[in-house]
Amino acid sequence: MLLKRALRVAMATAAATTTLFLAGCSQEQLSSAILMPLPASSIGVTNHTGRITDLWNISWAVLWVVGAIAWGLMFWAIIVYRRRKGDTHLPAQMRYNNPIEILFTVVPLILVVGFFAFTARDMKVIETPNDPQVVVQVIGKQWSWDFNYTQDNVYDSGIQSQYAGGTGDNLKDLPTLYLPVNKRVELVLNSRDVDHSFWVVEFLYKKDALPGKTNHEYFTPTKIGTYTGKCAELCGEYHSMMLFNVKVVSQSDYDQHIADLKAAGQVGQLSLDASRNQNLPGVVAPAGNEG
Known about the structure:
Blueprint: H1 2-23, H2 27-35, H3 49-80, H4 98-126, E1 134-141, E2 144-149, E3 154-157, E4 176-180, E5 185-191, E6 196-200, E7 205-209, E8 215-219, E9 225-231, E10 243-249, H5 251-263
Parallel strand pairs: 1-5, 4-10
Antiparallel strand pairs: 1-2, 2-3, 5-8, 6-7, 6-9, 9-10
Helix pairs in contact: 3-4
């Protein structure tokens, strides 16, 4: 009798707490809290977002099932094997249980191998060179980004965001990478100083820009729009202000942007000679900066 009463109280408390917590959530937030979906704005943005979203959703579905079973077994053991009134002795002790131990070994192994296999499958597709039609070198620096449009021999140099989180925010001056829609893109990622990470939120993918090393990212943008970018690697005092935009535009708008850069005199390529790290393996110091 006391057990039933205690269970009712516990369930009522949990329900009331959950209802109060979720009452302040929007429909999107409510869905996020339960299903952990990726941003709806990422749907169809590149040729890879569908693949990434499917892997994410399947992983969460599997984990929710595993969690429900684990929580169910935990509460079942707590209730069934609780200490009863009048019990003065220890319950029967079990040294081992072969079926349970095999289950607890095999199931996690299957999950780990399965997650690894599906992730490796998708990573192989995402990381395979795509015979690019557009190549852009992205150079990270404390705390902004430079873009070299290598095939057109023009560049765009960014300055640190002046975003202050209130009145007078100046996000229009963020460095902006222009890409033509439905064209295969290769990004060549470098850094002039410390580790950075080039992350376009809606692209659902990020890649590190490392000093002394060149990384590559391959994709095809498939939806015209402006997308938010940021550095995803803690890189110093103003890491949070290392923001940028990516504009996916029509071919004509992309050509116009290239023409605007040429008209502004931004012809040529920004080099890595200004790197602060002149003593890294494979880095040749400019004349006069040896040592």
